[in-house]
Amino acid sequence: MAEPEHGARQETGVLEAEEQSREGLDNERIQAILDAVEAGDAPAVIAELEPLHAADIADFIEQISSQQRRAFLALSADQLDGDVLSELEEGVREEVIEALPREALAEAVRELDTDDVVDILEDLEDIDQAYILETMESDDRAAVESSLAWPEHSAGRLMQSETVAVPQDWTVGAAIDFMRTEDWLPDQFYHVILVDERHRPSGYVTLGRLLSARRAMALSELVEESFLSVEATEEEEEVAHLFNKYHLISMPVVDQSGRLVGVITIDDAMAVLDDEHEEDMLRMAGVNEESSLSDRIIDTAKGRFLWLFINLITAIFASLVIAQFEDEISALVALAVLMPIVASMGGNAGTQSMTVAVRALATRELTGQNTRRVIWRELAVGMINGSAFGLIMAVVAGFWFGLPMLAVVIALSMFATLASAALSGIVLPVMLDKMKVDPALASGPFVTTVTDVVGFFAFLGLASVMLL
Amino acid sequence: MAEPEHGARQETGVLEAEEQSREGLDNERIQAILDAVEAGDAPAVIAELEPLHAADIADFIEQISSQQRRAFLALSADQLDGDVLSELEEGVREEVIEALPREALAEAVRELDTDDVVDILEDLEDIDQAYILETMESDDRAAVESSLAWPEHSAGRLMQSETVAVPQDWTVGAAIDFMRTEDWLPDQFYHVILVDERHRPSGYVTLGRLLSARRAMALSELVEESFLSVEATEEEEEVAHLFNKYHLISMPVVDQSGRLVGVITIDDAMAVLDDEHEEDMLRMAGVNEESSLSDRIIDTAKGRFLWLFINLITAIFASLVIAQFEDEISALVALAVLMPIVASMGGNAGTQSMTVAVRALATRELTGQNTRRVIWRELAVGMINGSAFGLIMAVVAGFWFGLPMLAVVIALSMFATLASAALSGIVLPVMLDKMKVDPALASGPFVTTVTDVVGFFAFLGLASVMLL
């Protein structure tokens, strides 16, 4: 758009000041707050927090040690507002909420949109939940309660109940007048939702179009071409996927009968997408999905123990394979030297395929349509790299140990291992996904078992047949 | 908001029809298109595509085989509009663009917002770029060219040049009138940006607030509390992080002198966030970041070869450690049976720490403030699980081989391996990040080398000293 003409110029010092007053969280600031906390100087703590965004205050609270956190909360807990609570990660938020007097908590929650209230209440004990609900205004309480009635991780939990909806046969002028007279509108809204006489959404108009259209224009002529709504029971992960795929900014949520019950905005969808990514990445590495840097050490250790234990079982399983070939190893120790190479290459090739598969399943790029082709593709890739590394290792082992047949054995077993690693890396996640098991969580141990067992068995078995 | 009163009710069949006409991409639809392609029936293909969203058409093109794609493009390439092009992933997009007559390409590009045009032009050969630029209107061309002048992956490339900006001393009424008279506004905008007399942004007002305020109200009284702008040279990854952290919907982009040059909207930031996640996840698994399910097999194999080759080097390095203990292994083959367990557990524990570290670095949760504490934390977790699995394996090995000293050896080496795995899993990514090397890409091989070498050396070395 062309640069607008500048009218009468008045320096608005307020704006500049406001812009500059929003400061970031640097180490200097953190130190200043910690110093004030140590001095027990509550007003100084509050003054240091004043120019920070709620997200930065939350970051501060998460990054300090739990001892510092207790001292900080003792001084300032009742001054934290609701936005800071909604920015905090779960574990830390619980700590903060425990430190808050109930009245302060209720006060903090009251300012929030219903979706943020729901997010906070979800994790509270029933008794605290009930207390906070009681202190809310009846409209808001009803909205929060009905949101909490939807299943966890559903669109119903993610939505805010505050919607801006008008009859679909209204004009631009009527909609604008309606908004002007309403004394209360949500903090964030980007569309006016059109509803039919049964309050079912039938389209939406962006505020930008509304603003640039003539007053007499029918809203129905301005609706966006791509309009989607979801049922409140839909999973939030699916909702986030739809936002990302169709570049949505907000999406109406309906109940079973198709009536509008709320709206989800893209910032919430973005947060869900981010969480899902984190979950997938950590799960694939065998880290408990709820773990965070601010958890207690013993909880973190416990969270990782289970995965390591599963890995131990598969490793012992692989060792049992090796144990079948003790005589061969005694006769030719070179086998013991080389066998970890085969297993390690298999493990890595399997992880490559598996990661591609898990990611493609998460983004819906791997569908019924292309599964067979993708499996064949991965197998082909595994066979190509299996041949390449078979050759390389044949040369290495040949020179190292001077045994031509050992070179042949390692070449063949490398091929078999990399091919089966690639195959299991794609097939197992697909199968788990079909069985409604999260492939990010469960694929790793299976793939590792396959690659280790195949690797050791192929190498030692071939050696036993061809070498000794 | 309360349910609005419904005025005169008129059934608007148009809306319902439009809503229903937007259909998803299911297997049936895919088959129908493919059948039409096989029959060489271009009008039928176009008719099948008609009700689909551009994102779904792009999905279809990505999911079919390259042979089917060629046949499809031969029939329909000139009918694809710009939106479909911008939805396609890079590799496939190149194929489609090659199949497009230049005029059709220029036509398709003309409808797009400048940020999408930039996204497409970035990947084209200079000669095609020049051709398309020539066919654009001079305003748009200037905007696209100035955007392309910013570095790759910068805010300047991500932004759209179309902004809605008004002088900061205007009133609500003036802003609304201005928008009414402008005959052209961007497809998507959510804020009116306030600028000073030098066109530097000083705040923004959401359209929702603008609509609900009185006409005489000064815009400066309605500005959002949290206002951020970025320089055009800022990295897009950082921009995406800011959107996610501060729940922004749009963000003005400025040049070195602080003048407004464009705006980035959250949907683009969400796409960047998604790409960054994908990159991190794939890089950690040693998959070439640009790889996709629709790449050619040989390219995929090449992309993965490098990582496997690096892994081979580290695996050979670990084997050299084993080779130092050939005599010990000959004397006691149980060592060869048990040693992969130690290395495997170390590798997994290292991956756990490393994934947590890479993720925390990406989300800026790991900062100068808490690095030391987090390192200590990981080490403690490694020592706790090292003790636990040391005990478990002592029992297992004791029963299996009946050698008490072997049990002691595996317990001690398990402890040493898991502790050093946890430590290197956190320290190496942090160091790489400090050295400005992407920790997601480079941590894996280092951590694996450490855990393998420490694992084999601790186990075989201790065995050599204590057992034989």
TrEMBL record, chains A, B:
Q: Which residues cross the membrane?
A: 305-323, 329-349, 379-401, 407-432, 444-467
From which domain of life does this come? Bacteria
Keywords linked to the UniProt accession: CBS domain, Cell membrane, Magnesium, Membrane, Metal-binding, Transmembrane, Transmembrane helix, Transport
Q: Which residues form the CBS domain?
A: 159-221, 223-279
Q: Spell out the InterPro entries in the cross-references.
A: CBS_dom, CBS_dom_sf, Mg_transptr_MgtE_intracell_dom, MgtE_N_sf, MgtE_transporter, SLC41_membr_dom, SLC41_membr_dom_sf
Subcellular localization(s) per the UniProt record: Cell membrane; Membrane
Q: Which CDD domains match?
A: CBS_pair_Mg_transporter (cd04606)
Q: Name one GO molecular function term.
A: metal ion binding
Annotated region Disordered: the residues are: 1-24
User: SMART domains annotated for this entry?
Assistant: CBS, MgtE_N
Bilayer topology annotation: Multi-pass membrane protein
GO CC: one term?
Answer: plasma membrane
* Function, as annotated: Acts as a magnesium transporter.
Task: Indicate the family of this protein.
Answer: Belongs to the SLC41A transporter family.
Complex and partners? Homodimer.
Protein name per the record? Magnesium transporter MgtE
- Protein's organism: Pararhodobacter oceanensis
* The gene coding this protein: mgtE
